[in-house]
Amino acid sequence: MAEKEGSTRRILVTGGSGLVGKAIERIVNEGEKRPDETWIFLSSRDGDLTNTAETKAVFEKHRPTHIIHLAAMVGGLFRNLKYNLDFWRNNVHINDNILHCAYEYGVQKVVSCLSTCIFPDKTSYPIDETMIHNGPPHHSNFGYSYAKRMIDVQNRAYHEQHGCMFTAVIPTNVFGPFDNYNIEDGHVLPGLIHKAYLAKKNGTPLNIWGTGKPRRQFIYSLDLAQLFIWVLREYKEINPIILSVGEEDEVSIKEAAESIVECMDFKGEVIFDTSKSDGQFKKTASNSKLKKYLPEFRFTPFKQAIKESCDWFVANYDIARK
Q1: What is the pTM of this model?
Q2: Contact partners, residue 229, CB within 8 Å, separation at least 6
Q3: Given Cys at both, which of 27, 84, 137, 248 links 145, Cβ 3.0 to 4.6 Å?
C-alpha cells in the first residue's frame, strides 16, 4: 500500500464531531491543511459504523486514502461499570468494520485512537507502549479496554498478512471544547466543569465524586490534534505511540477541581463524596517515545487549557453535549 507521489490525500476522520475530531478540524482549518489534502469529518449521522454495509457505503462514497479513526462508544467510569458488554461489542464491530474496509479499499494509512485504560491494572509505572498486553485491564471498564487492545492486535496482523500501514496512538485523558459534559456519563473534567457551572448558577455546593486523590495526565484536545496530524504524516511504525504530557505534569483530581473552581470563579462550598468510587488510582504514562521524535513540542499549560475549556462551555452552554 505504497503512497503515490503527487497524489491527493483524501483523509477521512471517523468520530469527526466529537472532542478530538472537532479539535483536528479546527487545527486543519486554522492553517494546517496542505494543498494536496481533502479532509472529511464524519459524524454518527453519516452512517452506523457497527453495521458492515453502512461502513462500506461510507468508503464507497468518500474513497479515503488515509483515515484517522476516532469513532467509538465511549463513556465515563460509571457508564462503563454498567455496560461493559455493550462497550465491548459495539467497539469491536466498529473497529473491525473500519480496518477491514480500509484493507479492502486500499487505504494507505490508518491511525486509530486507543486509550491508557487499556494498560494492565497491576503494573509498574510509568507505563509505556511495550506493556499493553502484560495483564488484564482494570475491572471497571474491561469491555472497552479489551476492544481497544484488539486494534493493536489487528494492526500487527494486517501488516504481517497484507502489508497494511495501520497504526495507533494512545492519548492520556483528553479534554477541551466540544467535550461531552454529561455529569452521569462524561469524563471527569467536563463533568466537573458542568457541575461547577450549575453550582455557581444555583448557589449550591460543588459535589465531587470520590476522594479527589487519583492522579491523571490530562492532554488538551488542540495539542492532541496537532500530534495526530504529525502521526498521520510522519510516524512510520506499526507499534503504537503514547501521546501525553510528561510524568511531571500529572495532577490529582482535587488539583484539577481547584483549577476549575478558580477558572469558573466559583466561591461556594466544595464537597468530596467519598461514598463514590475513585476508579484507578493512577495510570502514569511515559511520553519518552514521543519526546524522542518531537523533543521541541510544547504542550498548552494545564491552567490555560482549563480556562479555555471552561470559557468555551459557558459561551456554548446551549449547544454543548450534556
Answers
A1: 0.91
A2: 24, 27, 28, 32
A3: 137
